[in-house]
Amino acid sequence: MNNTTYMGIEIAMRGLYSSQRAMANIAHNIDNTNTPGYSRQVINQTAARPLLVANGAGMLGMGSDVVGVDRVRDTFLDEKYWSEVQYLGEWSVKATIIEDIQTIYNEPSDFGYTKIINDFFSSLQSLTTDPSSLATRAMVKEKGIALAKYFNSVAAHFDHLQDDLNNMVNAKVEEINNLADQIRELNIQIHQYEVMGNKANDLRDYRGYLVDKLSQLVNCSAYEVDTGLKLPNGEKETRFVVTISGKALVDHERVMHLKCESRETKLNEEDIENLFEVSWEDGNKLNLKSGELKAYIDMRDGNDGQIGSNGESTPNCKGIPYYQRKMNEFVRIFAMAFNEGIIDIDGDGILDNTEGHVDGYTLSGNTGIRFFTMLDEYGNPLSSADFEARALEYAAKSGITDDPSTPWDERLVAGYQKITARNFSISFDIEDDPSENIAASSKAGEAGNNENLNKLLAMRHNTYMFMEGAPEDFIKTVISSMGVDGQQYNQYLDVQEGIVMQINNRRQSISGVSLNEEMTELVKQQQIYGAAATMIRTYGEILDILVNRLGI
Amino acid sequence: MRITNNMLINNMMQNLSNNLVKTQKYFNQLASGKKISLPSDDPIVASKALKLRTDVAEINQYKRNTDDAMAWMDITESTLNHMTDLIHRAKELTNQAANGTNTDEDVFKIREEMVELKSQLISLGNATYAGRYIFSGYKTDKPLLNDDGTFNINVDNSEQIKFEIGIGDNININVPGSDLFNRTITGATAGSKSEFVDTFDKIISALEADDKDQLSSLLGDLDDELNNLLRVRASLGARMNRVELTAGRLEDDNINFTRLMSKNEDVDIAEAIMNLQNEENVYRASLATGARVIQPSLLDFLK
Question: What is the mean pLDDT of each run of 10 residues along chain A (552 residues)?
């Protein structure tokens, strides 16, 4: 039997070391309680390699040994989190933007579209009761301007919002690239540590945290792939890969960035200039399924699935181009009906040519004046005649000719496509001299004749003017469908918040630091440390007897 | 399940924030008096609100139109009333001249009065409402009759000024002068003599000639003019009646629709206050429990 003198004291010292390591670990855990992405670590402690006793009496225990530090983490929950948080990102962005859009319309309120159009028609009604009144004519002009300006202002707000969203798209792309770079750095560091047989717990936590952030921005999946090699500690060597819709954003130490390029041609005709097209750095098309980036792009480009200029369908979502298109549709049809009387009056889907403002007569007996036209490049309203000239010019350029079999001029109808919510305006004629140029009468030289006005007013209740019905129905439909969208986004957001919260709670439940637990552990380790120290003291006393008292 | 400190804190924060969202909702309702502030709060309410606003605005405009129509028709009616009196007086005078044994002086006086009545008739024919000639058809800026009783302008019986007093409900508010001043001829041409005034002219010439037979037969003409006037008045009266009925209905509609609008979008104050109070209680309770749960840990007892 080879029982050496100092063996006991050695074993006790190992106990001291073990509990010291454990207490240091507790300190580390407590320090990082609030570190985002941190998962608690535990000491991997085993009994030390035993000593074989030669006489066959068995193995002699040699105390404890700390062989590693592990993090407590359920990677399944990580994957689950990553697959759900992307929808949280998408819906929270969409819910916010649709709120912005609703604010632009400012409905229901006493200052929105309904008020403006009611006022406009009311002023026309007042004019029917006294068509010769110059004061009422001036009022009709002002209400006409208010109507046009409402659309101008809504369109301008949409333009601003689209510009903001475009900047957000760019910012999010940069954020994604930045995260990808950071993940790549961490991949290299983690690999370096682990190739030497260590576990890079904290770095792995941080990498997971970055993927958490990335997942909110874009639909991505992250996983480790075997390289086929073995690490010195016998575990498999892996590479960390992050993909977006199957294409690798980060593949261990290689990164493929995303890029933003200004579009040469607009995707939707309603768009503002120079919107960014997001693609892979190598020129491949980026296929987005969810995440904040997609939400910004959807709301920026979404035209309810209409085919865009590139021949592909736009995002199937009612974004800014959709609302711009609806506003343009409204002003075009409304202006054409009001000016020319070209409108579907019987619901057969074919236009009819009835009396419009051009068919009426002004106070001094002039005719052929349009009430609404558009602003020119300098922001001044076009006169009725200039508008007609431009319409014909545009038709000639687009190769549209008048079909004599229809009771309207196709070239003129085409010309109305030039009007948008942005440039909608009352005509220069009305702006310049409303007392003369409003055509209330159906005959020259009849100051009290309101027949033409009555015909214009009747259009207000023409339910065939738009697909959606009368002018007010049209806007009502736009606003309520916007409301339904907003409600839906908020509901999706609520659901998604619940799901993400729940997954996060489960992650916290497993990986989070519990102070009670750490304190208990601390007390336990303290006791063990004390006990081990007592062992050493006891051995000291024993050695004292052996060395000092057994002597001569 | 293992509960960690951050879970407790996160859950508490989440719940507090949920409570505040609800509290804010009721607070907004009370502060604005409206159930919703954005269409997405309740698209149905929003869409109804838009419809009802339009309805109320239209009803108000129709009400203004009926007021204007009534004012115009009142003036017309009182003018027609004067004309009726005028015909009665003319009949009386003609009767007197045709039957009695009048001295030349009497006849002369009667003639003088008849001339006066004629010019009064012409000025009634040129009556105005707010500067507009009410019998001039669409040419409201021009008088109907010249001083000699000829028409100043062309007027057609179809020149009916229409006001909208309901959706698709137009009512003509004027009496075209041609209908009133030309009994047998349809329409009036500028320069031609009004039949109505002409009857007076004939009586005046008969008085000048002291032609009693002629006067007797002209009495019949006066009766015809009176009947024509009464026909016009009857039609105007019927239309005034309709406008009045419509005005009454619009008044009711206005109240009903305004009430509907309020019911649709205005908040029930009592209910909102109760909800707010409720949320406040829940909020206080969760603050109180939160404070109890997150503060202590084993640390506090390891002394």
Answer: 74 93 95 93 92 79 90 94 96 95 88 90 92 92 95 95 96 97 96 86 95 96 90 84 95 95 91 94 94 96 88 89 94 94 84 90 91 93 93 90 86 92 94 89 89 91 88 90 94 95 93 92 94 93 88 64
Q: Which residue of chain A is at minimal alpha-carbon distance from B60?
A: A122
pLDDT tens by residue, B209-267: 888 889 999 999 999 999 999 999 999 999 999 999 999 999 999 999 999 999 999 99
Q: Which SS3 state, helix, strand or coil, does residue A28 take?
A: helix
Q: Which residues contact A491 (CB under 8 A, 6 or more apart)?
A: none
A98 → chain B, closest CA residue: B40
Can you spell out the DSSP letters for A369-425? --SEEEB-TTSPBPPHHHHHHHHHHHHHHTT----TTSSS-HHHHHHGGG--TTTEE
Are A539 and A547 within 8 A, CB to CB? no
Neighboring chain B residues of A526 at a CB cutoff of 8 Å: none
Residue by residue, DSSP assigns chain B as: ----HHHHHHHHHHHHHHHHHHHHHHHHHHHHSBS-SSGGG-HHHHHHHHHHHHHHHHHHHHHHHHHHHHHHHHHHHHHHHHHHHHHHHHHHHHHHHHHS---HHHHHHHHHHHHHHHHHHHHHHT-EETTEETTSTT-TTS-SB-TTSBBSS-B-TT---EEEEETTEEEE----HHHHH-SSSSSB-TTSBPHHHHHHHHHHHHHHHT-HHHHHHHHHHHHHHHHHHHHHHHHHHHHHHHHHHHHHHHHHHHHHHHHHHHHHHB--HHHHHHHHHHHHHHHHHHHHHHHHHHS--GGGG--
Using CA atoms, how far apart are residues A39 and A367, in angstroms rounded to an integer?
A: 81
Residues of chain A with C-beta less than 8 angstroms from the C-beta of B1: 509
User: How far A439 CA lies from chain B's nearest CA (Å)?
Assistant: 14
In angstroms, rounded to a whole number, what is the distance separating the alpha carbons of residues A274 and A267?
A: 10
- Min distance B82 CA to chain A CA atoms (Å): 24
Question: Tell me, what's the ipTM?
Answer: 0.85
Give B 34-73 residues with CB within 8 A of chain A: 34, 36, 38-44, 46-47, 49-51, 53-54, 57-58, 60-62, 64-65, 68-69
User: Do B162 and A126 lie within an 8 Å CB cutoff?
Assistant: no
Distance CA A20, CA A14 (A): 10
CA angle, residues A213, A217, A222, in degrees to nearest 5: 60
What's the predicted TM-score (pTM) here? Answer: 0.88
B197's tokens: 């005034």
HEC string of B101-147? CCCHHHHHHHHHHHHHHHHHHHHHHCCEECCEECCCCCCCCCCCECC
- Looking at this protein, which amino acid is placed at residue B105? E
Q: Residue A3: what pLDDT?
A: 65
Element at A328 (helix H, strand E): helix A320-340
Q: What are phi and psi of B202, to 5 degrees?
A: -65, -40
CB within 8 Å of A466: residues ≥ 6 apart? A329, A330, A333, A473, A474
Type of residue at B153: I
